[in-house]
Amino acid sequence: MAKPSSSTSPVSLEPQRFSSDDDDASTKKSERSPPYASDVLRFFKDVGISDPNVENYTSKDFYSNLLCNNIKTDTVRRGHVTCFSTVKPPIANYFGGLHGGAVAAIAERVAIATARTVVGEDKDIFLGELGMSYLSAAPKNAELIVDGSVVRSGRKITVVAIEIKMKKTGKLVYTSRATLYNSPIAKL
User: Fold this and answer.
1) What is the pLDDT of residue 146?
2) CA distance 61 to 126
3) Closest among 176, 34, 31, 188 to 104, alpha carbons compared
4) pTM of this structure
5) Digit-coded pLDDT (tens) for 141-188
6) pLDDT tens digit sequence for 93-124
7) What pLDDT score was predicted for residue 42?
8) What is the DSSP string of 30-80?
């Protein structure tokens, strides 16, 4: 067994600078952008994010703002909710399709909204299980129809089925089944 080398290279704990000013002769080598910085910035531009330093990422409920800007309600009936969504660059993956995490987040939101149509306001709803089937990819700028329907609703649980289809062709691209737990709101 070989002896480990006693010489180690020091690791800098200083923040890295990502600037595109490589022409500045007064810049030390340690202060220059790493060689992959231009690739990262190009990746952000390719997926539709022009500024990687998003201003409001630290705001309260930024996740909801990102997602809810892509979901528009069409119909709401007891036990059934239909929404429309568009695959925009902020929720697309590297390959130009709807990101898998965004699909699950949309399914969760629609499942909770659908369950709320049959569960009273006096009960709290929280997600217990979410099963996803990714059947095909939804390309960038595609319009989607998101249908949520209650499969079963009881005193303690509600099961919702979600189907996500292409609006133009009607092709089923994602399916989901969510189990939501209903619990009375605590009265403290």
Assistant:
1) 95
2) 17
3) 176
4) 0.67
5) 899 999 999 999 998 999 999 999 999 999 999 999 999 999 877 776
6) 888 889 998 999 999 999 999 999 999 888 88
7) 72
8) GGSPPTTHHHHHHHHHHTT-S-SS-TTTTSTTHHHHHHHTTEEEEEEETTE
Name the E strands within the chain: 71-77, 80-86, 123-134, 143-153, 157-166, 172-184
Tokens, residue 179: 């189990």
CA quadruple 26, 31, 32, 38: dihedral sign: negative
Distance CA 141, CA 153 (A): 35
Residue 11 has pLDDT above 70, yes or no: no
Task: Report the distance separating Cα 32 and Cα 27, nearest Å.
Answer: 7
> Are the beta carbons of 34 and 16 closer than 8 angstroms?
yes
Q: Which residues have a Cβ under 8 Å from the Cβ of 176 and sit 6 or more positions away?
A: 103, 104, 107, 111, 130, 131, 132, 133, 161, 162, 163, 164
DSSP E strands in 51-115: the ranges are 71-77, 80-86
Token output for 41: 């910035």
Separation CA 80–CA 69 (nearest Å): 21
